[in-house]
Specification:
Number of strands: 14
Mean pLDDT: 85
Oligomer: single chain
CATH superfamily of the domain at 295-332 and 362-622: ABC transporter involved in vitamin B12 uptake, BtuC
Helix content: 55-70%
CATH architecture of the domain at 295-332 and 362-622: Orthogonal Bundle
Number of helices: 22
Bound molecules: adenosine-5'-diphosphate, magnesium ion
CATH topology of the domain at 295-332 and 362-622: ABC transporter involved in vitamin B12 uptake, BtuC
Low-confidence stretches: 261-267, 272-285
CATH class of the domain at 295-332 and 362-622: Mainly Alpha
Strand content: 5-15%
Strand order of the largest sheet: 6-7-8-3-9-10
Structural class: alpha/beta
């Protein structure tokens, strides 16, 4: 039994739930009805622990919910929210497979069994044909059915559904309720479902809970709740109740006289041409094939990324002011003393490696910020991290600081501190604006970027020409290094941050769909957000501190990868690392060879190469 007792919840100083107690048995179907704003959604959320409770106790199968881990609860109780916070950038297949996440640990991926369960759920709700279609390219009803399939795939003991049929036509609504009916009879799933379709649910449910103004006004079997007097008291006037001549649950209808009289002879709705039912069995192999195609695509994408990176590693050191005799350089090794060996091992190679580290870092940070903020415009730049780093670096140059701590010199240290301080500033600003939510965070980041670049200009203006020139060189960005100190100093931060983000990538997928749903699927939302934000800021700060604020990588690479290989962060994050590294290495190779022996700022190249590439990929992927 999923038992919630005396839930008392409030938003600000308004009490929404007044000591509400509800319980669902395994195999029982409870319908939650009530007028708009009665607190139905809030009650479901309160049962899942998604809204703060003043008082109340919840238990599942006799166990106190507080003694269960989030994952353990998610494996027992599945949730279908009323609507998602945004249209996530995933395909229907990806959304449904997310229902399996509560059953996975660590870096584990879906197994073939998970894929079959997902395929079966998709098939049941009738959207299997759309498995590779993105959610922003399907109808609202199709998306809603996919969301339900995702919860079914979770294979929980209890299903909490918030108006799951509100966007469906009658045929599909009935189809969904039939599936739920089967789940509760064959798998003893306990169902608690908020709904406005009183007539439909009263045909299925065992018990109706009537919620009015955050209090339970009545509960009992449909026949006892659906009376004209009861409904009039709860929903206001205008409803009437007719007995079902066939002896089933009564009908709730508009009072006589509502609508146009010529049609009150309520002919049954014209039978809509039913969607051709897919064969129910016999095609399991094809299900498997369809889903396993994805895995091959993943391996291909990763293979492509690794190949691109290796190609960059081999080709990029060849570019530069002079041609090298690579054979000699190789033969002599890193300790070689010839000019070729020195240039290759001490100048070209560390430079390429640093560009790769920075490119991977900026791209992976961009991908993370975009998932966290559910906004494609979120990048290290727009969030003000790069601006903060610039301000720190420029300040260090202005003050003429020349100390060294643990091998780090003052300018990168200050840039690093500036980047982190600006993350905190952006968080604080967002909090001051309201909730630390995605839009507020992005607005705060943009505001902070503008403020910090104004300070940078001011500091430049106040500096003598030599310092001002030094500042401009830093702001333009680049990989002017000799030897491996920069690489060695940067790599640990970037590897640590990237590893953390890889570990968080499954949770990032859930977060980029809906925070409430993510929490109901076992994600500690505040902790995950903070960790991912910190890791993305760490890699950005480490990269920018070494190479300056190089723009566009964090926007271009994640968007291009997403357009080509999809939005699953478990693939997108490693791909961003690989392609970001490749892209920046090549951009730098161009920058130092196009006008050799002079060099162009690499930021110019990233923008000139990246802008058209991004537009081209986006336009093509939309076709
Ligand atoms: P229902 O699902 O029954 O239509 P809800 O549970 O969504 O109603 O809302 C109950 C009441 O709580 C409504 O008056 C609504 O305006 C209010 N409410 C819902 N969500 C929030 C929120 N995030 N902040 C403040 N008030 C809210
Ligand atoms: Mg609601």
């Amino acid at each position: 039994m999923f038992d919630a007792r005396e839930l008392h919840a409030r938003y600000a100083d308004r009490v929404i739930l007044h000591q509400v107690s509800v319980a669902v048995q395994r195999g029982e179907w409870v319908a939650l009805i009530g007028p708009n704003g009665a607190g139905k959604s809030t009650l479901l959320k309160a049962m899942l622990g998604l809204v703060e409770l003043t008082t109340g106790a919840r238990s599942v199968d006799g166990q106190d919910v507080r003694s269960l881990s989030r994952e353990a609860l998610a494996a027992k109780v599945a949730y279908v929210p009323q609507k998602l916070e945004s249209v996530p950038p995933f395909t229907i297949g990806e959304l449904v497979l997310q229902g399996r996440y509560p059953h996975q640990r660590g870096f584990a991926f879906e197994t073939q069994a998970d894929r079959l369960i997902a395929a079966r759920a998709l098939r049941a709700v009738g959207v299997f044909e759309l498995v590779h279609r993105r959610l922003d390219e399907v109808s609202g009803g199709e998306a809603q059915r996919a969301l339900i399939a995702s919860a079914i795939a979770q294979e929980a003991d209890y299903l909490l559904l918030d108006e799951p049929t509100s966007g469906l036509d009658l045929h599909h609504g009935v189809q969904i309720l039939d599936i739920l009916q089967e789940l509760r009879t064959t798998s003893q799933v306990g169902i608690l479902m908020a709904s406005h379709d009183i007539n439909l649910v009263s045909r299925y449910c065992d018990r109706i809970v009537l919620l009015v103004d955050g209090r339970i006004a009545a509960q009992g079997p449909p026949g006892s709740i659906l009376s004209a007097a009861q409904l009039e008291g709860s929903f206001g006037e205008g409803l009437d109740v007719l007995e079902d001549p066939a002896g089933g649950a009564p009908f709730v209808v508009p009072k006589a006289g509502a609508g146009r009289t010529s049609r009150t002879a309520a002919a049954p709705p014209p039978e809509r041409e039913a969607e051709p039912r897919r064969a129910e069995s016999g095609s399991m192999p094809s299900d498997e094939q369809r889903f396993s195609l994805d895995r091959r695509r993943w391996l291909r994408a990763l293979g492509l990324g690794v190949a691109a990176l290796l190609l960059a590693l081999v080709l990029c050191p060849l570019f530069g002011a002079s041609w090298l005799n690579l054979g000699d350089a190789w033969r002599e090794g890193p300790s070689g003393t010839s000019v070729d060996a020195t240039i290759f091992w001490n100048i070209r190679l560390p430079r390429v490696l640093l560009a790769m580290l920075a490119g991977g870092a900026l791209a992976v940070a961009g991908a993370t910020f975009q998932a966290l903020l559910r906004n494609g415009l979120a990048t290290p730049y727009t969030l003000g991290v790069a601006g903060g780093a610039s301000l720190g670096a420029v300040l260090a140059i202005k003050l003429g600081l020349a100390f060294v701590v643990l091998g780090f010199s003052a300018t990168p240290l200050f840039a690093f501190a500036g980047a982190f301080a600006s993350v905190l500033a952006v968080y604080a600003l967002a909090r001051a604006m309201g909730r630390a939510d995605s839009t507020e965070l992005l607005l705060a980041g943009i505001a902070w970027s503008i403020v910090s670049s104004a300070f940078v200009l001011l500091l430049q203006y106040l500096s003598d020409p030599a310092a001002a020139f030094q500042m401009i060189r830093w702001l333009v960005g680049g990989f002017d290094v000799v030897g491996y100190v920069g690489v060695v100093q940067t790599a640990p931060f970037i590897f640590a941050g990237a590893f953390a983000l890889l570990a968080l990538s499954r949770k990032l997928n859930l977060l980029s769909v809906d925070e409430g749903l993510a929490a109901a699927r076992g994600v500690d939302v505040p902790r995950t957000r903070t960790l991912a934000f910190a890791a993305a800021s760490l890699v950005t700060a480490a990269a920018v501190a070494q190479v300056g604020p190089i723009g566009f990588v964090g926007l271009l690479v994640p968007h291009a990868s997403r357009a080509l290989f999809g939005s699953d962060n478990r693939l997108l994050i490693p791909l961003s690392l690989l392609f970001g590294a490749t892209f920046l290495a090549f951009a730098d190779a161009f920058a130092r060879s196009i006008v050799a022996p002079a060099e162009l700022p690499v930021g110019v190249i990233t923008a000139l190469l990246g802008g058209p590439t991004l537009v081209f990929i986006l336009v093509r992927s939309r076709r």
